[in-house]
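re: ur question from earlier - yeah i can do the single chain one, its not a big deal. heres the input i used so u can compare w yours
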Amino acid sequence: MKHFVHIFLLLSMCFCFQVQAQGLKTFKLKNGMSVFIWEDSGKSDVFGEVVVRTGAVNDPEQYTGLAHYLEHVMFKGTQKIGALDWEKEAPIYEQIIAKYDEMAGENDPVRKEVIGKEINNLTIEAGKISLSNEFSELIEGMGGTGLNAGTSLDYTVFYNTFPPYQINKWLEISSERFVNPVFRTFQNELETVYEEYNRNKDNPNSQTGEFMMQQAFAGHPYSRSILGLGEHLKNPRLSQLIKFYNDWYTPENMALILVGNVDTKKIMGRIAAAFGKLHSKATPERKVYPDLDIKGRVQYNTKFSRYPSVMLVYKGVKNGHQDETALEICMQLLSNGSQTGLLNKLTIDGELLGGDASPVTFREQGRNIITGVPSYDNNQRRFESNKSVEKKLLKAIRQIAQGDFEPWVVETVKSGMCRDFDLRMESNNFKAHLLEDAFVNERDINQVLNYKDVVMGISVDDIKRVAREYLTGNYLAIYNEKGKPDKSQKIKKPDYMPIEPPVGQSSLYARQFKNMAINKVEEKFVDWSRVQERKLNDYSHVYYTRNEENEVFTLLLKYGVGSEIFPRLEYAASLMNNAGIMGSFEPHEQKEELSKLNATCVVDADDSYLYVTLRGYENALQQACQLLTRQLLMPKLDERQLKSLEGNVISGRITRKENVNLLADALRQYIMYGDKSDYKSELTDKELTELNLSELTGDINRATAYASEIHYSGTLPFETVYQVLSTSLPLVAGEKQSSSPVMKDMISPMENTVYFLPNSDARQSQIYFYIPMGDYNREENVRREAFNQYISGGFSGLIMNEIREKNSMAYTAYGFASSRGLPGAQTYFSGYIGTQNDKAVDAIDLYMKLLTDMPERPGRIDNIKSYLRQSALTDHPDSRNLSLRIAEWKRRGYTDDPAKEELPLIDSLTFPDIVDYYQKNIKGKPIIIGVLGNPKDISIDALKKFGKVIRLNEKKLFNEKDTMF
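and the output i got, formated as tokens:
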């Protein structure tokens, strides 16, 4: 019998088996579904996704937003998954569908509201005999992480990572979700999408991007927001969503992608059985839209940005077009990661505050977008005009079209693109994205994989040709000026009763799924011996990890001092990114020298460390290190760059009281650290404008005199690398011992306190929760992680389940206990809700109930234990980050993979352990709440029920001493 089953499975596949790259297999099932498998036995997990070649571009004109809505409700189960009694649920579901059609056809707003209440009642009734979160709980139980989905203009993708031995379960549930899906709790997801829509309207950058798309792709669906138009979101039809699914979610329009520790031969039959059950059917013919005909210069103006900018939009090419790569290089000659482009030079010279150039390529059309931000004059207290920025951008574009650049620049740009491609190819997710790109755009997979050959085959003549052909006098000039978005677009949330699904029950499918056999579980731990460590000088250490995937090295110098000791260091580090070498190179010349070695360097600083990251090919390791050493020892900081940096910071400070998201972060830090917040301890305006190059250079010299951790990953032998690093890096004798990392003191409240920051411009209220807890003890790690998974583990966690899934009060809500990672350091609980202002008080009330009287659902313990166990065995750092992770573990007191110590604790974990952790660390502790919101909707009296209310203003959050503007 087994023999005949095997024959049947093979017959359900098409024999177009191909191998285009090491470990890559592609084939099609008989129903037309494409399958891509990229084997890599060196990985500890598998990244799996199903991509559908449909997105917002296929939304009906009168029902925009359907593709995105559908992505949300594809997690809500099927006639099997989440169904406790489908025979009873089915007629209720049909009534809900009919009611949405009735409401969409109703013009009377009062009647619409009545129908909405009727739908709410039906949804609650259906919720009593179904489990809309069962799918996500089953994924959690099999150790799945990163469960999510995304909707783009051209495609929709569903994905997560899972342990290799769970491959059969993953294939089963990932295929079953597409068999008779049931779009449960559609009403609740509508409200969640409203939250997402309104949050988007609170973000000026999103608004600027949407405006650009509206003009750049006028006449094409690409011009519409993926979220949909406001009037359509208010008037949905579930029947249209079902039709969209039936039309576009066809096997021939779908692909299964698996990347990681998987064996194709062992799972081919299982894939055919799982996804072969999707019935073959034709996909609708796609509409064809004419490309935008831009004639001459066409200007548009906006007034909802925090700062002025110019966007020049030129005609481009669709994804996969023969000119795509040449245009990408053309854009890189204007702006690239090595900072050697013409716009980069304008930024280094202080002519622009910032500049960028990038091609935008979709399945059907493309554009080339070139952006510039004017410089800011501190003395005049104003930005340069957008008109002058446009002139500078056009001059740079003409230089490319005329070939006014040296040939070596092209070669270094191309080499840099190949280097970055090699680095990205180390990631399962990136490999999956490549395969996804090939499928969605119907490209030859070999063309996608041979990206480096295509890049290196582009000539200077090719670049000049595409520049003259596409970057012509026909373009859109979008002038973004300072202003605020229109508030009238906000969608008000309806007031519906929450769903109360049954507790402690599961579907027949779930019970059978949990009993499915899995492959042999191999307990593979992180091998510490892969990292070689050796002292260098008195206190510095070299950590070496061999990486055989390519010849790109990464070198991180982590000097043991930061801005806590040297307050100016963050500014000095920023200037180092555009520094020259005294007596040798100007800033742009130093960039060129490093670029000729096909290397990049990034300098950064935080409270605890100065970081210097060098990347490149190993054949130039010694030269790159020597060049870096000269720069660190004899940096030539630039006065123009200093003025540009000051202008950038000052202009940001002037406008930050209008930046809702920045204010929210300042509030978060204030409720946790008080006057030790980064915003309170920042340099004053006066100190900033008095910065000088001598002091900043001195800070770099003083910081590099501290001991450092040196983390290296590459293919060269350890002894060779150690010899190069010990002789070619800026490591001084008699180095200072580091006391980093720095742990700032945290606020210790005596009573519940609410800090209210009123902001009339906020469309969304941003709410933070903070509870100080005891000192870090690694023996509590397992119980802490179990508590975190219980209270905030994705859609199954209490917070998301209660606040988003049941009550639709927020798009984002979370909370977690944090350790800060050092023995003896204070731990704390931190939480967040982003919700509409008119729902803020109710959302806080619900969140506080979870913190003060945590609901107990012992039925989740098996899932949590399974998740923790499988995560411990598969969450392994890659070669680039292995030594950093091991160094961090050592600081926490470990001498081997923590999983070895934690697995027995996970196996013996009980639900009372989670409850005990909560009672000792959370329950009854004083809670600080920070609320940023509109005072028209949030009253201080309403907040008093949660504790003492302190009303703040923006000045309280920042260092206002010696304010100059």
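The longest strand covers residues 764-775. not sure if urs matches, ping me
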